[in-house]
Amino acid sequence: MKNILPKITWAVTLFCISCNDFLDEQPTGTLSSTSNLTSADAALAFANSAYVNTSVFNSLTSGWGSVTPLLLEYMTGKVSSENSQSNFKEFQELTVSSRSPYIEEWWRGCYAGIANCNLALQKLPEFNQVDPQLISRYQGEVLFMRAMYYFYLVRIFGDVPKIKTSQVELNELFVHRSPIKEIYDEIIIPDLLAAEKTALPLKDLTGRTSLSAVKTLLADVYLTYAGYPVKGGDQYYAESAKRSLEVLSHYTLFDKYEDLWKPENNNKGEFIFQIQFSLNKSSNQMVNIPLPSRSGMSAFNLEYGSMIPTKEFVESYREGDIRNDEKQFFFRTYKGNKSKFSPGAPELTFMDFKGYYIYKFFDSYAIDVAGQSGLNWTIYRLPDVMLMYAEAQSHADGAPNDASFAALNAVRYRAGLSPFTNSDLVAFTAAVWDERYFELCYENKMWFDMIRTRKIRDDISGQYVNFIGYTTKWGKTYSNTQLLFPIPLREMQTNPKLVQNTGY
């Protein structure tokens, strides 16, 4: 089980990240379990270690044009690929195996992050000579990150090994899987409740964790806990609504959708928590991944075409929805890049790609000039929280209140849609789910919504139907097997105490 454990020596190289530039990493040396823990810089280094593995949320995997977010998009049936080397075929055929590089990268990255968090949570209380408020803030950041790593793991894999402390003995290397509910009850929820009580700032514009980010994640956790597979009940809808409502007044929607893909807006406006990228340091690979394959439209070395929206999904947007206009959430035309075409070539003026492509991550400077992007990858933004609140409150109380209508309709208003006024719970829920589909598409939200609701929106009818038994556009039918991904083969071979998920 070597992929989920810190080195037994506990020696970890950590980094001090500047407040002015979250990616301006400067080595502070090697810290171990015997280090003299008196320096504020050392405490910061432990806190920063919790963020090192956030790359798992958006990083390259083995395979040409393959990145980790594709795992959570390919299985939805709402996306295709022009890149045969992206392993899309096994998702299309619903034959994903434990050998998938996406599977291994998510498991390894999350558990590596958890290992760093466990060590940081062990060592931070020992900094007796550092400002207690500062230590409290750092503990809040680490608790948030550990909860988030585990939240992704249980939704992707189901039951997973429960590791809360640094492992230093060989006999600790082999760990059984613990039930999903136990992971929620003993790690995810307690970590977030504890983080709520720390000295975190309400907001943070540098990319670090804020109290608002904690409450947002807790709202998402409670909403998920209320649904499948835990089915916690209405009290968790109420807890979700409480947390999301506490966040709503502190953020504002951008006036225009194009503000979402401007790097200068990173960590601002409606963004609550993002994974940090920066030019010349760590480029966001999701900028060129969805571009038309080998089209020559960008300054990137290649356009991969690894994530292409299905025609059926794009055309399921309602008439008048601005998000479906050209160069809002999608595009069909652009111009060729001068580095790819000879002077005077007609492609330099206009190219028609004869299909739909994703525009939500369109960093124009990166595409036209730089060939690398500092656009952040978003984990949570305001519309997500608005829609979480509307769904959770209406289910907790049995009907939507004025605040839920306001939240839903704010998202609709920006899209150019008329207000929704039907207070019937079933109709209101469908309207909220619609906005989650249309507003948050291709942001790694749709798959998790499908498995917590056990419903999928049929693009042709616009109706929500049972996930189990639904046949995709490729003629493949979802079964209980697809509710979870397989445990990586390497982990199964290394740890004899692991049991594979049913169907794999």
TrEMBL record:
Protein name: Putative outer membrane starch-binding protein
Main location: membrane
Segments forming domain SusD-like N-terminal: 65-223
Similarity comment: Belongs to the SusD family.
RagB/SusD domain boundaries: 347-504
Annotated localization: Cell outer membrane
Keyword Plastid annotated: no
GO CC field: cell outer membrane
Keywords tagged on the record: Cell outer membrane, Membrane, Signal
